[in-house]
Amino acid sequence: MIERKITIKVDNQLLIDALVEATELSKQNLKSALDKGCVWLKTDKQISRIRRIKKPLKIGNEVFIYWNEEILSSVPTQPTLILDKKSYSIWFKPAGIFSQGSKWGDHCSLTRLVEKMLDRPSFLVHRLDRATSGLMIVAHSKAMARDFSKLFADRLIKKTYLAIVSGSFPVENISLDDDIDDKHALSHITKLAESQERTLLSIHIETGRKHQIRKHLSGFNFPIIGDRLYSDAKKDHLEDLQLQAVNLVFNCPIDQQSININLSEKEQLKL
Length: 271
Hints:
The protein is of the alpha+beta class. Helices cover 18% and strands 31% of the residues.
């Protein structure tokens, strides 16, 4: 693992040359690191991910490399395009890929995968946990990202999830409103089916707090199967988190037409 800061002392030095001098990595490995998003450039104005191997640098620029072979060797499951409106798109994000990258790279993130698949800039407007699968919106311009961020902030996008919990859920319908991180949170839960000591639930959330559904169901003593944070499931638990975003409803920011996207039954969680 390499975590290093490189201060540039020669004007117009190429990025790849600076990295070769400062690390024991080969040019091939460094090109891969750049493509996978673990190299950052800090200038007077900002710090941002950089991918251009022949980027000329200025004296005083700082380059950061975060090389972790285990992370960079990960092979992501590819997302599936559901709807393409050119200025935004809707995708099925499989469990196991991130919504966005970290300083250690972004090649296993939805935004980067979409960017490469569509050859368009991609901007995150909402998140799903890495372990959660389901529908996600990706904007392809900063203006569209702002439009969707406002829709989410104004709670004008309806989100519905499926979850499978252990045991027999005791009620057909319930609304859970325990605060999360001292903020109001509201989840409406409907029992759909039950089989072999498991229950399939439909959940509509009016707020979007971090881990809201997972925390609400765990607090109700019905944690989601496979939840390694809020249940007794261990790290070596064989089942993935049984939580999935299956429906998005909103008015299109382009033409105000109603958009109602459902995940196909083939992809949906089942008992």
